[in-house]
Amino acid sequence: MTKISGILVVIGGLLCLLYGILNIIGAPFGILPGLGLGGILGGLIIGIIQIILGLVALATSGFVNIPALKLEKNWIILLILGIVMYLFAAGLPGILVIIGAILLLL
Fold first, then answer.
1. How open is the CA angle 104-88-100, to the nearest 5 degrees?
2. Rounded-to-integer distance, Cα 75 and Cα 95, Å
3. pLDDT single digits (tens) 13-32
4. Contact 53/85 with Cβ under 8 angstroms?
5. Dist. CA 24–CA 20, nearest whole Å
6. Hey, how many other C-beta atoms are within 10 angstroms of the C-beta on 17?
7. What is residue 52's predicted lDDT score, i.e. its pLDDT?
8. Taking the C-alpha atoms of 52, 54, 55 and 59 in order, what is their torsion angle to the nearest 10 degrees?
9. CA 70, CA 30: separation in Å to the nearest integer?
10. pTM of the full predicted structure?
């Protein structure tokens, strides 16, 4: 279960990075969209937040070695990270990280 959980968190982090890049360039992509801000400046802000959240998810899972963004790999931390991702307009990546956190709990 931990391997599947790690794979889901990595996929969620990569998709969150992709969502962030697409929001910055002005072409938002959303399967299961979460909440978000409107307008050009809103897309830029949401995109930067999504990129940071994606990097935090990847650093926490151990996929990327960024010591400043690395958190303890705990199910509650991943659950909160997934909820925050979902709230910042990254619906599918947030749900993948939430499912990974639940699988890490089991």
1. 10
2. 14
3. 999 999 888 888 877 666 65
4. yes
5. 6
6. 21
7. 93
8. 140
9. 27
10. 0.84
